[in-house]
């Protein structure tokens, strides 16, 4: 047998990709303490905290409007399955956190969908989970976005889901002009 045949089977690692955006990031540099574009290992039993307090939080946001501990992410395995997930918990008493369109108050928590947008204040974070098999740790991979992730990804942008009539004219065009839509017989067109 060769050393290749005797080598342990390599397991894949769950990776949480987080893309950060804030409209004032160029001026205020609130992400300057985050390690972008390099994967970072986090032990499976560790709670990953995000916030202003560098003594408590692993991921620091340098902004006085951010809570000392804004939110946490906990890696776990679902009961009676082999599926691994993340749970997000709002730890801010002052700021509500939204995950897609679910609003979380202080100490509320929910499972993180495999792809979602986390918002609080002017912060937007696109979270994407890349599945893996490792039970000992997961990885985080942080990215910085120049454009709002809400506009890029359009997850909560619901106006695009409005039905468009057969004539192809959206009712929102009339509303933006201050006119209300009127019903017209199709034979009149």
UniProtKB/TrEMBL annotation:
Transmembrane segments: none annotated. SUPFAM superfamilies: SMAD/FHA domain. It holds the Pfam family FHA. The keyword Transcription does not apply. GO terms for cellular component: cytoplasm. Keywords: Cytoplasm, Immunity, Innate immunity. One of its GO terms (biological process) is positive regulation of canonical NF-kappaB signal transduction. Residues 49-121 form the FHA domain. Signal peptide: none annotated. It is found in: Cytoplasm. InterPro entries: FHA_dom, SMAD_FHA_dom_sf, TIFA. Its main location: cytoplasm. Belongs to the TIFA family. This is TRAF-interacting protein with FHA domain-containing protein A.
């Amino acid at each position: 047998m060769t050393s290749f045949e005797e080598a342990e089977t390599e397991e894949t690692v769950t990776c949480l990709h987080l893309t950060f955006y804030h409209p004032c990031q160029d001026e205020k540099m609130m992400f300057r303490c985050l390690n972008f574009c390099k994967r970072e290992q986090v032990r499976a039993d560790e709670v990953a905290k995000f916030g202003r307090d560098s003594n408590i939080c692993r991921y620091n946001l340098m902004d006085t409007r951010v809570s000392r501990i804004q939110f946490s992410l906990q890696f776990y395995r679902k009961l009676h399955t082999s599926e691994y997930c993340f749970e997000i918990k709002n730890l801010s008493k002052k700021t509500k956190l939204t995950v897609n369109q679910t609003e979380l108050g202080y100490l509320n928590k929910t499972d993180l969908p495999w792809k979602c947008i986390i918002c609080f204040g002017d912060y937007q974070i696109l979270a994407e989970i890349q599945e893996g098999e490792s039970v000992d740790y997961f990885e985080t991979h942080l990215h910085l976005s120049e454009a709002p992730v809400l506009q890029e990804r359009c997850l909560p942008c619901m106006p695009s889901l409005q039905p468009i009539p057969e004539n192809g004219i959206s009712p929102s065009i009339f509303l933006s002009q201050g006119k209300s839509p009127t019903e017209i017989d199709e034979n009149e067109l």
